[in-house]
Amino acid sequence: MPDLIMIAAEEKLLELELDENPVESFPCMPCLAIHKQARTQLYAYLTGQFFDDAQAMEVLIKELDAYGPFIYQLDDDLVTRIAETEEDDVPDIVEWWAGAAEMDTLGIYDEDLVELLSTFLYNLIHFCLSVRLEPELGFFVYADG
To answer: Among 35, 47, 94, 138, which is 20 to 30 Å from 56 by CA?
Structure first.
């Protein structure tokens, strides 16, 4: 299963079992082809941190099995920063993000890459806004690896 972004109450999410599909229980959005290194590059840019420091912004909270999937919680400050991102700023952010070294590993180029990153970032902003409106909810990543 590709990585998913999820909104959930943490206690409910921690009840998730290995054989359960999170899409059936929680609001989810696919990460599309955007893997953790590519997401981390975005986090670093938005927060002004170094890449190595931004890697800690997805915090492991549960292993469903020793080999995955894994559930990570996004740092609250990062969620706030994403929620505060103006939609008018998305094209400039995506232009920078598309040029980042980690994007080469996606194997997607030019207009397709810009469209993919734009779609992901717009959706990410709206998911973060939803979490900010519902304080009992958290922002999580469900990842196979």
So the answer is: 94
Map residue 40 onto helix, strand or coil: helix
Rounded to the nearest 5 percent, the helix, strand and coil shares of the chain are: 50, 15, 30
pLDDT in tens, 64-92: 999 989 999 999 999 999 999 999 999 99
Q: 134 burial class (0-12, 13-18, 19+ CB within 10 angstroms)?
A: exposed
Tell me the whole-structure pTM to 2 decimals.
0.88
Give, for 51, the enclosing helix (H) or strand (E): helix 51-54
- Distance between CA atoms of residues 134 and 110, nearest Å: 37
Would you say how long the chain is, in residues? 145
Query: Taking the mean position of all CA atoms in its chain, how far away is CA 134?
Result: 18
CA 107 to CA 121: how far, in whole Å?
18
The DSSP bridge partners found for residue 137 are none
**Tens digit of each residue's pLDDT (9 = 90 or more) over 116-143:** 999 999 999 999 998 888 888 999 999 9
